[in-house]
Amino acid sequence: MTSRRPDNFDGLGYRGREDPAFSGGYSGRSFNNSSSVDLQNWVTTPPDIPGSRNLHFDDRTPPFEAAPAAPGTQDTLPTAPPSEQLNRFAGFGIGLASLFTENVLAHPCIVFRRQCQVNYHARCYHLSPLTAVSVMYNVTKSQGPKALWKGMGSTFVVQGVTLGTEGIISECTPLPRELSHKWNPKQVIGHLVLKGLTYVVAMPFYSASLIETVQSEIIRDNPGILECVKEGVGRVMGMGIPHSKRLLPLWGLMLPTVLHGVLHYVVSSTVQKLVLFLLRRRSPAKQPEDGSETVQTMLDAYFPELMASFVASLCADVLLYPLETVMHRLHIQGTRTIIDNTDLGFEVLPINTQYEGIRDCVNVIRREEGALGFYKGFGSIVVQYSLHAAVLQITKVIYSTLLQNA
């Protein structure tokens, strides 16, 4: 091991040099200094390297002592107040609860709603949430709780495909993914074109996910989480499970799919911005005088956005419910899908429709099922958003109580 001592190290002159880096504010010891009797019983050494201590006889290195703290500096380290940490945790918790309710807890309502929409045999339209809950209970009782959570993995896959496709298209084209505050009509058109192209790419995977969602648990196998990707690619390539001649081509499904997706996005975005503007105008955020965050500032920061998103999604689903019914019937036609009997919940029914397109589907539903035929299963959407609103309110009350008691 190479020595770290300087070449001219003599043990005496080195310790006696006037170097503030090593003297530490104390006088060095030297035998040539007549005032050495006044020196204390220790020497100053170079940086504490093992083996570099050159102590004289009866000399001892003083023990390490922490430097005294400056007056008035004790217990003044900046630490985040507990209320701030609770506020951050509250915002994360409220958002997580909303996400869990929208994608997991409400999935049985989505399953039953889609089954009602594609069931042209149904005599009970389930416009009331009471009848919807009753049949959902019968399905769970006869097939198990798993029957109402089928296809949940494929819905996440479709969301991932949609987000990935949107990102790739926005990076490879000049189409804007987000609109700035100073938008112009050209940017809006380009943004909507991006959304439309994204829905076109995700359309075959959405169709496969729809089949997994409405297929009866009695006759279906246990598909893997990526089964909808395989089915979607097979739908594009014309391979996979054989379909009947009534299966509509993908280009025939493009118009209702893109129209529903773009209109849903436009309605939900407009309503969300309007509701958020009204909420913030009604109760503007107030900064406390002492600079600390309070319960009210937490609610003003997190809850209005969640409430605006909730109202926007509700308005878009209600307004576009008839178009969604038509779109789902066109997607499911010719796929040889067998669904649960939504009248009782104990039997299964095949889907054998013969629609020629979106116009023919609208005319047949209006003629054979009436105007309310477009709203089959509407009671489930009432249950879904009632459950979502209840979870948001309960979460708000819980975190408000925790922050007030903190």
From TrEMBL:
Residues 1-27, 44-83 are annotated as: Disordered. Its main location: mitochondrion. PROSITE patterns: SOLCAR. It is a multi-pass membrane protein. InterPro entries: MCP_dom_sf, MCP_transmembrane, SLC25A46. Keywords: Membrane, Mitochondrion, Mitochondrion outer membrane, Repeat, Transmembrane, Transmembrane helix, Transport. Signal peptide: none annotated. One of its GO terms (biological process) is axon development. The keyword Transport applies. It is found in: Mitochondrion outer membrane. PANTHER family: MITOCHONDRIAL OUTER MEMBRANE PROTEIN SLC25A46, TB1 PROTEIN-RELATED. This is Solute carrier family 25 member 46. It comes from Salmo salar.
